[in-house]
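User: Could you check the structure of this?
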Amino acid sequence: MTWDNNLDMGYGLLNNEGQGVRKSDDRIEFSSKYGRKASGKWYYSGMVSFKTQFADGYDYPNDSTVISSFLAPAYITASLGMDYKPGDNFTLFLSPLTSKMTIVTEAELATGFGLEPGKKFRGEFGGYLKMAFKTPVVTNVDLLTKLDLFSNYLDKPQNVDVNWEVLITMKINQYISANINTHLIYDDNIRLMDDDGVKRPKIQFKEVFGLGFSYKF
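Assistant: Sure, the predicted C-alpha coordinates are below.
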Protein backbone atom coordinates (compact mmCIF):
# COMPACT_ATOMS: atom_id res chain seq x y z
CA MET A 1 0.00 0.00 0.00
CA THR A 2 1.16 3.55 -0.70
CA TRP A 3 -0.37 6.86 0.39
CA ASP A 4 1.23 10.10 -0.81
CA ASN A 5 0.07 13.53 0.37
CA ASN A 6 1.46 16.83 -0.90
CA LEU A 7 0.71 20.43 0.09
CA ASP A 8 2.25 23.40 -1.74
CA MET A 9 1.49 26.95 -0.61
CA GLY A 10 3.14 30.10 -1.83
CA TYR A 11 2.56 33.83 -1.64
CA GLY A 12 4.98 36.50 -2.83
CA LEU A 13 5.06 40.20 -3.71
CA LEU A 14 7.35 42.26 -5.95
CA ASN A 15 7.76 46.03 -5.99
CA ASN A 16 8.95 46.99 -9.48
CA GLU A 17 9.89 50.54 -10.31
CA GLY A 18 7.06 52.21 -12.22
CA GLN A 19 4.66 49.32 -11.58
CA GLY A 20 4.19 49.28 -7.82
CA VAL A 21 3.54 46.17 -5.75
CA ARG A 22 2.29 43.09 -7.62
CA LYS A 23 1.95 39.43 -6.78
CA SER A 24 4.80 37.17 -7.86
CA ASP A 25 3.32 33.96 -6.46
CA ASP A 26 -0.05 32.92 -5.06
CA ARG A 27 -1.21 29.32 -4.75
CA ILE A 28 -2.72 26.65 -2.56
CA GLU A 29 -2.31 23.13 -3.95
CA PHE A 30 -3.12 19.87 -2.17
CA SER A 31 -3.13 16.31 -3.52
CA SER A 32 -3.66 12.90 -1.95
CA LYS A 33 -2.93 9.63 -3.79
CA TYR A 34 -3.66 6.14 -2.48
CA GLY A 35 -2.40 2.96 -4.15
CA ARG A 36 -2.53 -0.83 -3.79
CA LYS A 37 0.19 -2.88 -5.41
CA ALA A 38 -0.79 -4.51 -8.70
CA SER A 39 2.44 -6.01 -10.08
CA GLY A 40 6.11 -5.08 -9.88
CA LYS A 41 6.35 -1.29 -9.66
CA TRP A 42 2.69 -0.69 -10.67
CA TYR A 43 -0.11 0.24 -8.28
CA TYR A 44 -3.88 0.53 -8.65
CA SER A 45 -4.37 4.13 -7.54
CA GLY A 46 -6.89 6.86 -6.87
CA MET A 47 -6.08 10.54 -6.45
CA VAL A 48 -7.88 13.74 -5.46
CA SER A 49 -6.41 17.22 -5.78
CA PHE A 50 -7.46 20.78 -5.00
CA LYS A 51 -6.03 24.07 -6.30
CA THR A 52 -6.88 27.71 -5.64
CA GLN A 53 -5.19 30.95 -4.50
CA PHE A 54 -5.08 33.17 -1.41
CA ALA A 55 -5.82 36.68 -2.63
CA ASP A 56 -7.28 38.78 -5.44
CA GLY A 57 -5.53 39.03 -8.80
CA TYR A 58 -5.84 42.13 -10.99
CA ASP A 59 -5.90 43.00 -14.68
CA TYR A 60 -2.59 44.87 -14.60
CA PRO A 61 -1.76 47.64 -15.27
CA ASN A 62 -5.36 48.21 -14.09
CA ASP A 63 -5.17 47.43 -10.37
CA SER A 64 -8.87 48.09 -9.77
CA THR A 65 -10.29 45.28 -11.94
CA VAL A 66 -10.32 41.94 -10.12
CA ILE A 67 -9.89 38.91 -12.43
CA SER A 68 -9.39 36.17 -9.81
CA SER A 69 -9.73 35.59 -6.06
CA PHE A 70 -9.92 32.88 -3.40
CA LEU A 71 -12.06 30.00 -4.81
CA ALA A 72 -12.40 31.93 -8.07
CA PRO A 73 -11.20 29.77 -9.60
CA ALA A 74 -10.75 26.54 -7.67
CA TYR A 75 -10.03 23.19 -9.33
CA ILE A 76 -10.98 19.81 -7.88
CA THR A 77 -9.76 16.68 -9.66
CA ALA A 78 -10.66 13.07 -8.86
CA SER A 79 -8.88 10.28 -10.76
CA LEU A 80 -8.68 6.49 -10.97
CA GLY A 81 -5.81 4.77 -12.73
CA MET A 82 -2.37 3.19 -12.44
CA ASP A 83 0.71 4.56 -10.72
CA TYR A 84 4.26 3.55 -11.71
CA LYS A 85 6.76 4.00 -8.86
CA PRO A 86 10.20 2.46 -9.52
CA GLY A 87 11.71 4.39 -6.59
CA ASP A 88 11.49 7.48 -4.42
CA ASN A 89 12.71 9.80 -7.19
CA PHE A 90 10.12 9.11 -9.90
CA THR A 91 6.38 8.58 -10.12
CA LEU A 92 4.06 8.41 -13.14
CA PHE A 93 0.30 8.37 -12.59
CA LEU A 94 -1.92 7.51 -15.59
CA SER A 95 -5.68 7.89 -15.33
CA PRO A 96 -8.18 7.25 -18.16
CA LEU A 97 -11.04 8.12 -15.75
CA THR A 98 -10.76 11.65 -14.39
CA SER A 99 -13.35 14.17 -13.29
CA LYS A 100 -12.21 17.80 -13.26
CA MET A 101 -14.42 20.43 -11.63
CA THR A 102 -13.87 24.16 -12.02
CA ILE A 103 -15.48 26.34 -9.35
CA VAL A 104 -15.77 30.14 -9.61
CA THR A 105 -17.56 31.55 -6.56
CA GLU A 106 -17.65 35.06 -8.04
CA ALA A 107 -20.21 34.77 -10.85
CA GLU A 108 -18.94 37.92 -12.61
CA LEU A 109 -15.56 36.21 -13.17
CA ALA A 110 -17.07 33.07 -14.72
CA THR A 111 -16.41 33.76 -18.40
CA GLY A 112 -12.69 34.29 -17.80
CA PHE A 113 -12.38 30.62 -16.81
CA GLY A 114 -14.52 29.06 -19.51
CA LEU A 115 -17.84 29.05 -17.65
CA GLU A 116 -21.10 30.35 -19.05
CA PRO A 117 -22.04 33.86 -17.85
CA GLY A 118 -23.39 33.76 -14.30
CA LYS A 119 -22.43 30.12 -13.75
CA LYS A 120 -20.25 29.02 -10.82
CA PHE A 121 -19.40 25.45 -11.79
CA ARG A 122 -18.19 23.48 -14.82
CA GLY A 123 -17.53 19.75 -14.95
CA GLU A 124 -15.19 17.95 -17.35
CA PHE A 125 -14.42 14.27 -17.90
CA GLY A 126 -11.23 13.01 -19.48
CA GLY A 127 -7.77 11.49 -19.19
CA TYR A 128 -5.04 12.66 -16.85
CA LEU A 129 -1.26 12.23 -16.49
CA LYS A 130 0.79 13.35 -13.50
CA MET A 131 4.58 12.92 -13.38
CA ALA A 132 7.17 13.92 -10.79
CA PHE A 133 10.93 13.41 -11.02
CA LYS A 134 13.82 14.56 -8.86
CA THR A 135 17.54 13.90 -9.18
CA PRO A 136 20.94 15.41 -8.32
CA VAL A 137 22.49 17.02 -11.42
CA VAL A 138 25.99 17.63 -10.05
CA THR A 139 27.32 18.06 -6.52
CA ASN A 140 25.06 20.45 -4.53
CA VAL A 141 22.70 20.98 -7.49
CA ASP A 142 19.31 19.21 -7.51
CA LEU A 143 16.54 19.12 -10.12
CA LEU A 144 12.82 18.65 -9.46
CA THR A 145 10.22 18.66 -12.24
CA LYS A 146 6.46 18.10 -12.12
CA LEU A 147 4.12 17.76 -15.11
CA ASP A 148 0.29 17.58 -15.20
CA LEU A 149 -1.63 16.92 -18.45
CA PHE A 150 -5.42 16.73 -18.83
CA SER A 151 -7.54 16.05 -21.93
CA ASN A 152 -11.29 16.61 -21.86
CA TYR A 153 -12.95 13.73 -23.79
CA LEU A 154 -16.18 15.71 -24.23
CA ASP A 155 -14.85 18.98 -25.70
CA LYS A 156 -11.75 19.46 -27.91
CA PRO A 157 -9.72 16.55 -26.50
CA GLN A 158 -6.77 17.56 -28.71
CA ASN A 159 -6.37 20.79 -26.69
CA VAL A 160 -4.49 19.36 -23.70
CA ASP A 161 -4.25 21.38 -20.47
CA VAL A 162 -0.61 21.68 -19.35
CA ASN A 163 0.88 22.53 -15.95
CA TRP A 164 4.68 22.09 -15.89
CA GLU A 165 7.09 23.18 -13.17
CA VAL A 166 10.89 22.93 -12.99
CA LEU A 167 12.91 23.74 -9.86
CA ILE A 168 16.72 23.78 -9.72
CA THR A 169 18.25 24.25 -6.27
CA MET A 170 21.92 25.06 -5.71
CA LYS A 171 23.76 25.00 -2.41
CA ILE A 172 26.52 27.61 -2.56
CA ASN A 173 27.86 27.04 0.97
CA GLN A 174 26.61 26.02 4.40
CA TYR A 175 24.29 29.02 4.68
CA ILE A 176 23.67 30.41 1.19
CA SER A 177 21.50 28.71 -1.44
CA ALA A 178 20.03 29.71 -4.78
CA ASN A 179 17.19 28.40 -6.90
CA ILE A 180 15.72 28.80 -10.36
CA ASN A 181 12.02 28.06 -10.81
CA THR A 182 10.01 27.99 -14.05
CA HIS A 183 6.27 27.43 -14.38
CA LEU A 184 4.35 26.95 -17.64
CA ILE A 185 0.53 26.82 -17.79
CA TYR A 186 -1.83 26.32 -20.72
CA ASP A 187 -5.60 25.86 -20.37
CA ASP A 188 -7.74 26.19 -23.50
CA ASN A 189 -10.70 27.36 -21.39
CA ILE A 190 -8.87 30.35 -19.89
CA ARG A 191 -9.04 33.37 -22.18
CA LEU A 192 -6.48 36.20 -21.93
CA MET A 193 -6.70 39.57 -23.66
CA ASP A 194 -4.59 39.80 -26.82
CA ASP A 195 -3.06 42.96 -28.29
CA ASP A 196 -6.00 43.32 -30.69
CA GLY A 197 -8.51 43.37 -27.80
CA VAL A 198 -9.74 39.79 -28.36
CA LYS A 199 -9.57 37.18 -25.59
CA ARG A 200 -7.79 33.96 -26.59
CA PRO A 201 -6.17 31.00 -24.81
CA LYS A 202 -2.45 31.64 -24.28
CA ILE A 203 0.63 30.02 -22.81
CA GLN A 204 1.46 31.54 -19.42
CA PHE A 205 5.11 31.35 -18.34
CA LYS A 206 6.93 32.48 -15.20
CA GLU A 207 10.62 32.33 -14.30
CA VAL A 208 12.00 33.24 -10.87
CA PHE A 209 15.57 33.33 -9.53
CA GLY A 210 16.03 33.36 -5.77
CA LEU A 211 19.03 33.76 -3.47
CA GLY A 212 18.63 33.21 0.24
CA PHE A 213 19.72 31.87 3.60
CA SER A 214 19.37 28.15 4.23
CA TYR A 215 20.25 26.04 7.26
CA LYS A 216 19.50 22.35 7.69
CA PHE A 217 18.87 20.96 11.18
